Amino acid sequence: MTQVVADVMTPEVSTLGRTTIPRPRAAAPSAFVAPPLAPSSVTVPPAVVPPVADSRPTGSRRGPVWPAVLLDLGLALAVGATAWATGQLPAVAALALAVGWPLMLAGAGRYRHQALGQARSARVSVLAWSGIRAAVLALALAPWLGHADVTGLVAGVAALTVASGVPFLAGRRPRRPRVVLAGRSRDVRDLVAALEASGTHEVVAACLTRTAKEPLGGLPTYVGFASASEIAHRHGADAVVVLPGARLSPPEVRRLHWSLAGVGAELYLGTGLLDVEPTRTRVLSDSGLDVMHVRQPVLHGPRRVVKDVVERAFALVALVLALPLLAVLAVAIRRETPGPALFRQERIGRDGVPFTMLKLRSMGIDAEAVRDGLAAENEKDEVLFKIAQDPRITPLGRRLRKFSLDELPQLWNVVRGDMSLVGPRPALPSEVARYDIDPQRRLVVKPGVTGLWQVSGRSDLSWAESVRLDIKYVDNWSLRLDLSILVRTVRAVLGHHGAY
């Protein structure tokens, strides 16, 4: 069975698409014989590759799972004993709850080692779903558990779920998976930079197609892939990631998989896809044709209608509630500097249709006129124009921007249908005039009051990063993603990150 994994390294820096090939169950001698290593930038001491496919090196890199099992079993026994001692559950029900809980967690995958790209929230969701399944199972078996009280059973399951989650959430962050990258030097260099920025994985070595013209920092590098399994063993790697440019033939990939099984490491194959969520992919195999199918993004249909209706209704309610605050801010703006309180600016909406975007004025009325004189002080690249200490911003305007209060009038743009609550960054006509192929993708949906670009750094982002995040949002849109961005927007606004 082949499993597809394709996820985003947070905070929204890079995507590592890969196909996970499971380790074979039966032990078998390795059919992939590793020739002597050919290091290109570093020499490591010799190591012994275990000759048996399923044998693991002494002192496994991943660590034992028994401490977690024993901890959950101890918590389950404590909760069961307490429920029995207080009379909430009969002895049979308390014992079944204590013994069944670790088994339920084991079946849900709680004790499996962390996979590459697995978020910490995934472990929490395992606990939550285990609690729900355990509650349903307990209610179904209640008549055979000494006529246990339904309320007591549900309370016991809830207590177990919380008790098992507290040590995990309060404990230290799990160790980062250690990986060996295999591919062209430029691909490896780009991915190393992305993984270092995300801090989610540790690259311990690289296998290159040819000797690198420039060294990859202090990273141990080797030429060729035949000894990848031995390299993974020497550097204590959890996995080898083969990038698309490696050009390994199918038989070579299969043999590499066999040899990695002998050293306790997994194999991941890069897909070459950029910012594609796993929910949009699946592997198909038919008559010798093994391919990955990527679903088209959702740009139309019922879910888009739901998004539009819900956002307009929410924006209308929020705008009515915010009217007193808007009135106070409008008066304060007029008293600080002459001119209107509202700032109107033409922006480009869906399908390139222009509209007038509203904001509370945070600059002087001559801001647009003096912009050309500040061109030399622009701190951004290419299309964007941003200055951290912009002299055009008024003292009150700086406070408004700090808490994003200047964007409140955009709720009216949402009600009108010009904008969405969540969407790509609304672009100026001058920016759109300089768009090449990729940025044009932003214009297939409505721009948003907030978006993935805002919760990932706002004004601190470069032009390229802003474009990439907007395209990622467009292509992977879902109602769940919108909800996640709205929650993160609250944190971004309260934290004032990139607000200027």
TrEMBL record:
The chain crosses the membrane at residues 65-85, 91-112, 124-144, 150-170, 313-333. GO terms for molecular function: phosphotransferase activity, for other substituted phosphate groups. It comes from the Bacteria. One of its GO terms (cellular component) is membrane. Pfam families: Bac_transf. The keyword Acyltransferase does not apply. It is found in: Membrane. Residues 307-494 form the Bacterial sugar transferase domain. InterPro entries: Bact_transf, EPS_sugar_tfrase. Keywords: Membrane, Transferase, Transmembrane, Transmembrane helix. It is a multi-pass membrane protein. The keyword Transmembrane applies. Belongs to the bacterial sugar transferase family. This is Exopolysaccharide biosynthesis polyprenyl glycosylphosphotransferase. It comes from Nocardioides cavernae. The lineage of its organism: Bacteria, Bacillati, Actinomycetota, Actinomycetes, Propionibacteriales.
